[in-house]
Amino acid sequence: MNRRRRSTAFLAVAGLTAGLLLTAPQPASAANLIKNPGFETAGADGMPYCWEKSGWGDNDFTFTTTADAHTGAKAMKVELTRRVDGDRKALITESAACAPVVSPGKQYDLGLWYKTTTPDAAITLFRHDTTAGWQYWTDLKTLDLAGNWTEATVRTPEVPAGTDRISWGVSVYGTGSATTDDYTMDQVPDPVLPPECTGTAEQCANGKWDVLPTQNPVRSMHSVVLNNGKVLLIAGSGNDESMFEAGTFTSAVYDPANGSYKIIPTPKDMFCAGHVQLQDGRVLVMSGNKGYPTADGQIGYQGYKDSYIFDPETETYSKTNDMNDGHWYPSATILGNGDVISFGGLREDSTGSVTAELFSEAEQQWQPLWKVNQTWSYWGLYPSMILMQDGRLFYSGSHVFGNNIPGTGSAIYDYDANTTTQVPGLRNKDERDQSASVLLPPAQDQKVLTLGGGNIDSNPDANRLTDIIDLKQPNPAYVAGPPIPQGTVDLGDGPVPQTGNQGKMYVSAVLMPDGKVLETGGALHNRADPVYETSIFDPASETFDPVAVDPEARGYHSSAFLLPDGRVMTTGDNPGNGSWNHDVSVYSPPYLFKGPRPQITSVIDTEWNYGDTQRITVDRPIAKAELIRPAAVTHSSDPNQRFVDLPLSVDGDNVDLNVTSNPNLAPPGWYMLFAVDANGVPSVAKWVHLQGPQALKATDASAHVHDFADAPKGKVAGPGKKRTSQKVSPTVSGCDRHYGSINVCVPTDFPAEVRRTTAARCAWLKANDYGRLKVNGKDDPLGLDRNRDGTACGKGDLARR
């Protein structure tokens, strides 16, 4: 995770007043929004009018107004002669007098002429938020080395709401110089044609769900979109002990092109494993189920140490070396160098694992314990660990089963320093069991949304909470977002409207190519009471828009994910009675009913490097393009899901895409490339392969890392005392194993509205189709076998008082 922490050392000269001017300002051209675009008019502090010195970090630098100009008599040269970290840049003065006025929702074409002696120079953009003030926005384009005057152009993303001005310039990140001249800025014309509705009014407003005619043949709870467009669906034993005892472990590969399924031989019980796509597109699958809980409830689930790699080309699994510990329900996060880090889960003895694991991309194996930094902390089950732009990990608070970790329930983990800093603001932190967390589009904005959740131990009504955190802030903290819209809930007698604060756990959240987030599915209680509600979250306005609802129940062991054609597929549902929903739903969002889709007619090169400019051709104008990392989702968790903006340089139907230079924003691997028009209508994706950090031109791969979240004030903890494990209750899954078969989940705690009587509990079990329940052993902790005949909720039990 080669990353050095940075101390802020930002230098910004204040805006110049008219009284300081040495000569009158040079008028800009009618279309050009830049004042003094060629540095011809002098200002103060040795800088031209409306330009200021800016930058940060430990480096030696000079700012020079040089006669070596593209046109006129002057140009600006910024040079670094020594660099440890940071950058320097000549920036449009951040003032009302100088910074160009912009309109939210609009895009702007930026241009300049330059010479460079370093490969580490980029066009950098700042924006003025009317509430929060000036702040870094994004790097738009890395400049190629150029000994002669060279033109660079790039189009901004849509200006965010609340932004009234922008400032920009060329940042020099590496030793060497950038000389620039003749800046231009023009507003992109609005699209001529409004969207054309090609479906019914309902479809154009809310989209459409279809339940596919062919069922999913396996009880899959893991869904991984492969780099050939197919989907790996992993079941293992499918939460069915009879399958486990028989050694029947299954996976399937689904092909959206023809709707077919292929059953894949599966060597181990990968039920509740972890998984992530490696840099080359293969899928790393870690741990899984070594054993089910015992009938007497003394031993819980157990995780094995085995690990496998699935190859999409051969559609086969191959074994890797073992992990250091067992990890049933582990996290899996790919890092900027292609390594994979994993935390949490249950060990072979069903205690909680405190061992961090690291899979080396270079060595293609799990590292021995002594090579991996350890905090000896128990992070829980499927802890949502999201890679930040500087290589640290953000634990969002989303997890599976019961209470959250101690403290605030959210934290930033610095692997290199081996420290954990608590992050405040997450509401009801112990009721975020099977909530969902996503890095909001675009990844460059570094905002995370966490939504919904419950608690299978105490079994309250799941909540409607959403919380949003901006990881660009020096001291980031969650703030309350809008509540999840309510739908209907089936409490056993058919769907009825949700009331009060009823929300949902088992939430699925999917990044879509128009830059919004689809949230769907869920249930009100532990493996019971499905909630039917789907909505689209807009990160720009931070609002939800309720849309068409998946007609199928999607609770525990369900998943939702984006297909390369822009649709969203949902599978699974495993209520407490042990049944399984094999029906598959596919959602066509409203953008698929807004007229013809743009087409990417060619991709010049599918092998991409960081900092590249890559050309595509399109059949008509587009407003944006992005990379979306394909899903690897289970139990509401996919911490690697991300949407990476690709700033554009447009020349008719030829569009140059500017790829980030920071591998922490877009970890190496295969991505879906979408082109999107001004009405939010996306193309069908093309697959491109983004290379690892060895492709970076910079000597220091951290050159384009910015200094965010640099002053968190939460409690900081270093490594704890070395230990073997964390004690975890055998009932961690919220199921009382004294009743029924192992794949049946009689809740340890019933919903609050169910009275603590045999009759009320048995009525609830009957309404939820639990059927006949054998009592395992002599214990009856829930009082369901009052006549002690070995069968719970029989006639004799209900007749007794």
From TrEMBL:
SUPFAM superfamilies: E set domains (SSF81296), Galactose oxidase, central domain (SSF50965). Residues 710-732, 776-801 are annotated as: Disordered. Residues 597-689 form the Galactose oxidase-like Early set domain. Residues 251-577 form the Glyoxal oxidase N-terminal domain. It comes from the Bacteria. Keywords: Signal. Residues 776-789 have a biased composition (Basic and acidic residues). CDD domains: E_set_GO_C. Residues 1-30 form the signal peptide. This is Galactose oxidase-like domain-containing protein. It comes from Streptomyces massasporeus.
